[in-house]
Design a protein that fits this description.
Layout: E1 3-9, E2 18-24, H1 33-46, E3 69-70, E4 73-74, E5 96-100, E6 109-111, E7 114-115, H2 118-125, H3 147-157, H4 164-168, H5 175-186, H6 195-208, H7 219-223, H8 231-249
Parallel strand pairs: 1-5
Antiparallel strand pairs: 1-2, 3-4, 3-5, 6-7
The chain binds FE2/S2 (inorganic) cluster (FES).
FE2/S2 (inorganic) cluster (FES) binds near residues 57, 59, 82, 83 and 84.
Length: about 250
């Protein structure tokens, strides 16, 4: 099949960017979206051009590295999947596909389709962990966790930190990401020790990084490849408010 592409090209963080037209023939419907970009890059290199910079790692929906805006939708219109899981059978012969990077002030463009998501790392460093005594492995039943709590924690922990929630939100809010990361520990006994400092630290860092606030558009939930619920945002707000009162009262 033949695919026409409009791809965002930008040589560096401060360089002006623009959509560049490409046309590529012989694409197999069983190819993944990223394999289609690989094929394009082989053609560009053969013609002596600069290949399109884009990110990927696992290529199976696990690492969260591959986010692209495809035809105006973060990770494409299929829903509940990452860019690397999109297959070319989703498109028709002769289609024109527009590809852009995730756009947000807190995610500056490095080159072409590659963005800097280190803001998420700095938020995680403020509380996205549990402190435990190291040593030999604990008995598996030493810290019982209720099945419902374990499943709720796993649902929140499904977040792969891709940033689609930020790209889809009209406010470029990271509330779904931060809400999921706070929630996954809130459900577990191991997460109780740093519960307050985690909520305060992560929310304050989210604000400091320049992400917008949540105004309940729920675009984040629709774009999330792991279908993380916006109930995580409500939980984040409760955790943050409680921690704030506790901090002011102490
Ligand atoms: S490359 Fe890892 S989730 Fe897409």
């Amino acid at each position: 099949m033949k695919i026409n592409l409009k791809i965002w090209r930008q040589s560096g963080p401060d360089a002006p960017g623009r959509l560049v037209d490409y046309s590529i023939d012989g694409i197999d419907q069983s190819q993944s979206f990223l394999e289609m970009l690989d094929t394009l890059n082989e053609k560009i290199i053969k013609d002596g051009g600069e290949p399109v910079a884009f990110e990927s790692d696992c290529r199976e929906g696990i690492c969260g590295n591959c986010g692209l805006v495809i035809n105006g939708v973060a990770h494409g219109e299929k829903g509940a999947c990452t860019t690397c899981e999109v297959r070319m059978r989703s498109f028709q012969d002769g289609d024109t596909v527009t590809i852009e990077p995730f756009r947000a002030k807190a995610f500056p463009i490095i080159k072409d389709l590659v963005i800097n998501r280190s803001a998420f790392d700095r938020i995680m460093a403020k509380g996205g962990y549990v402190a435990v005594n190291t040593g030999s492995a604990q008995d598996a039943n030493l810290l019982p966790v209720h099945k419902d709590a374990a499943e709720a924690a796993m649902d929140s922990a499904a977040c792969i930190g891709c940033g689609a929630c930020v790209a889809a939100c009209p406010n470029a809010s990271a509330s779904l990401f931060v809400g999921a990361k706070i929630s996954q520990y809130t459900w577990l006994p191991q997460g109780q020790v740093e519960r307050s400092t985690r909520a305060l630290g992560m929310v304050k860092q989210m604000d400091a990084e320049g992400f917008g606030d949540c105004s309940n558009h729920a675009e984040c939930e629709a774009a999330c490849p792991k279908e993380i619920s916006i109930a995580n945002i409500s939980r984040m707000r409760r955790e943050y408010t409680k921690a704030l009162f506790a901090e002011q009262g102490s």
